[in-house]
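Quick one, T. Sequence first:
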Amino acid sequence: MKTYLVVRARIEDRDYKKGIDGIIRLDYMGAGEFEWGAVPESLEAIRASIANYTYMDYPMHGKIITVFCKADVRTEVIAMLNELADGNMHTKCYTDFDNLLTPSKHELEWQAKSPLKTNFWWDIDNHVMFWVKNNEFEVKFKSIIGVKPN
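Structure tokens:
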């Protein structure tokens, strides 16, 4: 699984927005590859094959990462998460995923003053979403994405 375009986002209730924009705030990535409909195209691709999607919780460095992906790519997604966490994957823009899982001493000091804002990621190349485990968010997400809660 080749991953290059990963959008950073923040889980956030935004009742004044509709759809997925009502539960996450996408970061401005500053690169043309993320513009011109790339994110809506990924969402459309997900919805077109929603029956093939599943959820999995994956423990990493003392945190639980919830992943929403096609069932047949779970192994590749786990490998991708590990590469991102170790800082061994080159992506178009900075993901901040490694700082969440293995922050440096300097990063820990910074987070004490200003907590990480990124807690949701969207691989728009492979139509995979993942976030820091959040049960309340997951219920809202399933409702919006088109999957009934368990």
